[in-house]
Amino acid sequence: MNFKWNYQPPTQEQIEAAKALAKEVGINPILGKLLLERGITSTAEAKRFFRPQLSELHDPFLMKDMSKAVDRLNQAMGRKERILVYGDYDVDGVTSVALVYKFILQFYSNIDYYIPDRYEEGYGVSKQGVDYAYETGVKLVIVLDCGIKAVDAIAYAKKKGIDFIICDHHVPDEVLPAAVAILNPKRKDATYPYEHLSGCGVGFKFMQAFALNNGIDFHQLTPLLDLVAVAIASDIVPIMGENRVLAYHGLKQLNSNPSVGLKAIIDICGLQNKEIMMSDIVFKIGPRINASGRIQNGKEAVELLIEKDFAAAVEKANQINEYNETRKDLDKTMTEEATQLVIDKEGMDKQRSIVIYNENWHKGLIGIVASRLTETYYRPAVVLTRADDMATGSARSVTGFDVYKAIESCRDLLENFGGHTYAAGLSMKVENVPDFSRRFEEYVMNHISDEQTSPILDIDALIDFKDITPKFFADLKKFNPYGPDNHKPLFCTRHVFDYGTSKVVGRNQEHIKLELVDNKSSVVMNGIAFGQSSQARYIKTKRAFDIIYSIEENTHKHGEVQLQIEDIRQTETV
Length: 574
Prior knowledge:
The chain is of the alpha/beta class. Strands 3-2-4-5-6 form a 5-stranded parallel β-sheet, sandwiched between helices. It is globular, with a radius of gyration of 25 Å.
């Protein structure tokens, strides 16, 4: 991929402000600039950013309908009513269900959980799910990470005498379902100070409120924060504000004392004896949990996450790992087919979006394929397949473009849709696919900028190798956990040279293991440039080149750093 490099040199005023803040906080002035870019302008704010405290979590009763939700849960427990915890089949959904089910189960036993089948029932609250609740005597359903658009299903449940509490974070429609309580920080009448919670985060806030109301110590909730961190990373929500507090402490829990089920997944991923970061969740833990709902049924993932016996958890984790291997094989085939469809599509080079349809594709994997197309072509992508008589699909977006609004602009062609800025699901009659493709493209064409359709690497700072001291790296680590709104910083060093020992590595000789020096010092830096072996010949000529990179801890040599090279180019003006 040909990246554009973007660097905005700081003004003298910005340099002075960064230096002043860095001095107050006790960090390198280069990193003071990064704090200012994140809206952090005081020592107190920096302290909260670097060392988030659970005491900083918002009062859960600030959320609209929270008192109603807690009152109805207390009433159900007082009346000994059967409760059903119902959730979506993706990572956010199954972690939400596991969290709420595990917490309530400590105090109340007449409780069950339910994950709809992706293929038989589809997304959200299904008629089959309501029927299951009715047949098993359920009087209260707590629905997590979905439900905000389930107007008809919840009306159907109400006729059967079943109440609903909705815990969701997806964008609501004008008409809300007739639930007893709707906990959603994106409600138009929301009163909650933070709107970017994950579905699991909303579930956690509900349990926090329940605990407060019933005099249960907050420490009984902290073991569940590992599930919240997994949801935050996997659902790609911003990692600032309250999410940063939850992610920070969730990672601590995941690293120090994870639940039995998550420990089994950690071991199967080969992450034991390693500090687990958000990226490990995104690329290793999350996909395995997701594979259950994609290939089989998300209920198996919940069974693993609530398991108390480690031997049983390992057995379940192995099964889920097999689903993930199947998923990878199918994913590879579908991605190749989808890429060929894009290549063959007439006029594709002039389009700003991608909409493709293949009725034979696996419904559980279309979201992954949409993500791959977005990464490859840097355009919003919608991938559709056939389920019964409907075209059903997933959409993914590029930085800064709201794909939910683009889909919403075509709502008259749709049977159902939902989601948020960067990811959405939708369904329509098969005959509507051509019109949808045309209308979606028109909306994108009129609302997307040139910058949003070009892969851009934003350089945070120009530095020399001598700047990368142990203190600099220790300060940099404080910016973890990374994610949306708190990206991993990218640095640029100009005029670097091969030390003479760089070499091509990898099963297919696709990567470069680098040993580099710059022209400002004699420091030799190790680095890895994934998928950039085409640059090796130039590098070996001993001519100067520029690199953009992030700074990582070398997992093979503890305490040392290495550069993860994002892009290489012959020396020129940045």
